Amino acid sequence: MKALSNFWRAMLAIVWKDLATEWRSRELISAMLVFALLVIFIFNFALELTPQTRNDVTSGVLWVTLTFAGTLGLNRSMAVEKDRGCLDGLLLAPVDRTAIYFGKTLANFIFMLLVAAIILPFYSVLYNTNLFVGGLLLVIVLGAWGYVSIGTLLASMAVQARTRDILLPILLFPVTVPLVVAAVKASSGYLKLLDQVEITPWLSLLIVFDLIFTAIAFLVFDSVVEE
Amino acid sequence: MNAKSKWLSVLDVVSIAGFVAAASMVFFYAPMERVMGLVQKVFYFHVATAWIGMLSFFVAMVAGIIYLATHRTRPDAMKWDIVAVAGVEIGLVFTLICIVTGSIWARPIWNSWWTWDPRLTTVTIMELAYAAYLMLRAGIEEPERRARFGAVYSIIAFISVPLTFFSIRIWRTIHPVVIGGSDPSASGAFDMTPRMLQTFFTSLVAFSFLYGSLLWHRIRMGQLAAKVEQLKLRLSE
Amino acid sequence: MDAPADTLNYFIGGYGFIFGVMAIYLVSLVVRFRNLRQDEKNLEEMEEK
Fold it and tell me: Which pTM value belongs to this model?
C-alpha cells in the first residue's frame, strides 16, 4: 500500500512541477498554440477550405495540427529536463522510474488537451462549425493519450541522441500514424454524424493502441533512462 | 574474429542452390496464369520477400528483448544488439523488394503503381519505422546506449508488423489474401494449380535458407564492426 | 476465352529489380566487410606501435 501511495505522490509531484514551471514561463503552451494556429492558417490556404470541402477535411486538419503541436511540446518538455540536468536529478531521486514516466506523460497529456481546448473553439469560430460534439472530445482524449504515451518515451530517447532536433518526428510518426488514422476516422465519423456502428471499430482500435503503447512504454522506460 | 564456420559454408551452398532452383521453377516450371499473364509470376518472390521481411523484424525484436533482459547482468549481451541490427537491415532490404515488386505487379493488374490501400499503407509505415531505427542508431555514438535505445525501438517498431500482416484481414482491401481466403473485394486474386503451389513453397523455403545465410554473414560483419569500434575507442583514449 | 494479358515487360522488370537489389546488397556486404578488415588491420598496426 505504502509503495503505491509513494508512486502516486512521486507522479503527482512531477506533474505539479511541470505545470508550475509552465505557469511561470508559459513558453511551452504559447509556442504550441501559436504553432497550432499557424498550421491551421497554412491548411486554410493550402487546401482552400471552402464550406463544401471543409466537412471532409476538418478532422484531418485538426489531428495534423494537434500532432505537430504535440511533437513540439514533447521535444521541449524532455529537452528542458535534459539541459538543466533535471533528468539526472529525477533519476537520482529514490522513486520508481515508472512514476517519472507517468508523471511526464500526464503533464504532456494535459498540455496537449489544453492546446486542443483552445484550438477547438478557435476553429469553430473561424469556420462557423460546431466542434463540441461529445464523441469528438472522447476521441481527442483517447488519441492524445496514445500519442503522448509513446511520445514521451521516444522523446526521452531522442533528447539523448546527437541528432535530437530532427529525431523525434522521425521516430514518432511511423509508430503513431495508425493511431492518428484511427483518430481521424473516428473524429470525422462523429462530425459527419455517422452511425455509432461505423465509428466503433475505429474507437476500439484507438483504445487498443492506447493500451499497447502505454504497456510497452511502462515496460521499457527503465531501460531508456538508466545510466 | 572467428574463422568462417564450416556450417556457414554449407548453408551458403544450400541457399545458392535453393535460390537457383526456386528461380528456375518460377521461370520454367510454373505455368502462366490465364488472366494476368507472366506478371503473376512476380507473386512467388513477392510473398517470399514479404515473409522474410517480417521474419527478420521479428528476429530483431526478439534479439532486442533478450538484450534488454540480459544487458545488466551479462557482459556479452552486446551480441544480441548485433543480431538486432542484422535483422533490421536485412528486413529493410527484403521489404523494399516486396513493396516495389508489388507495385510493378499492380501497374498492369490494378492499373496503377500505387493505391492507398490498407496493406500498401501499413507495409510502407513498417518500412519507414525501421528506417527510423537506423537513423536513431546513427545519432548515438556510445555503443551501450545505442544498443539499449535500438532494442527499445525495435520492440516499438514491431507493432507495425502484425498490423501489416492482419491489415488485409481486418479492413476491406483490394490486396489478395494468400493464406485464408480473399475478401470478395480483392482484385487480382487467383486459384493456385499444384505446380504453382509447388513453386510457391519452394520459393518460401529457398528464401528462408537464403535469409539464414545472409543473417549469419551480417552478424559476422557486425562482430567485426564492433571489434573495430572498440579498437578505435581504445586508440582515441 | 481471352488470351492472357501481355505483361512480359512487367515480369522482366519485377525480376530485374529483385535480382538487382539482391546483387547490390551482396556487393555492399562484401565491400563493407573488406573495409572493416582493412580498418582492423590498420588499427592493430597502430596499436602495436
Answer: 0.92
